[in-house]
Amino acid sequence: MSRNRSSLKPIEGANRSIRRRLTLKGELALAVAPTAIVLGVFALVEVLSRQRLLFASLASSAFLIYLDPEHGTNTMRTLSLAQIMAATIGWIAYMIFGSGYLSGGIAMVVTIVLMILLDVVHPPAVSTSLSFALKASNENNLVLFGLAVGITALLVGLERFTLWVLARYSTS
Fold this sequence. Notes:
Layout: H1 24-48, H2 57-67, H3 76-97, H4 101-117, H5 124-134, H6 139-168
């Protein structure tokens, strides 16, 4: 296993350990896209499914992307692989063990181990595995979740673009 764990550090070229704080106006500008994405995903879920809790971890993903869009845990690759993997593991655990603590515990442990081994550490995915293990009534929810993850992954690019615009047109 490699000691160079890319999902746990700022991405190459970020040249810093944490995101610098912006002005209040900048922070609010950076928060607009995650808020809009989460509300859009909720609207999509409401139209296509009534399983709202299966998608709650994506709100945490969106907030992490806002917090530090240039961190390795928030890349499109890490977010997408971890979330889809966690949903699939949770759904499989539900299908094998039914809904309950055994299913949730197994899904959570397998998800954590695989995130570490595959170097796709995205903490909200742990909640995803639990959500699917405890309430994953059909495979259509897995497909819908995949679509929602794709929409959320676009947020990474949107947030990086927003940071670029803020840096380019900042007066300070």
